[in-house]
């Protein structure tokens, strides 16, 4: 995970070297703690990327392989007892770049698609996997955003 000046926390999966990437950004504008997960396939392999729980005013981004298929994006809110409630679920057979805004209150949360502000003018690419890296991508991802 990486955090930048805009309080966006970024996570990426390194399925293949130099593969073009898509991304999902969720911003929590609600009055609750939120999280989301993205499940998808690349070839025959299934991936399930989860965000941590994040507070109101924070955003989280997941980068994933542009060759993904069978995508399911689910966003959740949490009450004081840490029980989750599904806010929205979106499915697609093809990869997409989406930005979602979560809003409302715990009794009545909502989810809307918003326009994505560009990270860079160049579409993101997943960096080549470094042989010194373990399964975590923290040492490799900053190259995307510098």
TrEMBL record:
Superkingdom of the organism of origin: Bacteria
Name of the protein in question: Uncharacterized protein
Organism: Clostridium botulinum
């Amino acid at each position: 995970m990486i955090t930048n000046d805009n309080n966006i926390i970024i996570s990426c999966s390194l399925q293949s070297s130099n593969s073009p990437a898509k991304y999902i950004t969720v911003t929590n504008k609600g009055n609750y703690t939120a999280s989301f997960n993205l499940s998808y396939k690349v070839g025959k392999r299934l991936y399930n990327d989860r965000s941590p729980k994040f507070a109101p005013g924070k955003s989280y981004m997941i980068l994933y392989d542009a060759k993904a298929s069978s995508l399911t994006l689910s966003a959740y809110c949490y009450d004081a007892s840490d029980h989750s409630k599904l806010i929205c679920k979106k499915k697609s057979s093809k990869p997409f770049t989406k930005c979602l805004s979560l809003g409302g209150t715990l009794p009545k949360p909502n989810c809307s698609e918003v326009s994505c502000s560009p990270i860079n003018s160049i579409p993101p690419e997943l960096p080549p996997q470094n042989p010194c890296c373990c399964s975590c991508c923290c040492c490799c991802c900053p190259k995307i955003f510098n």
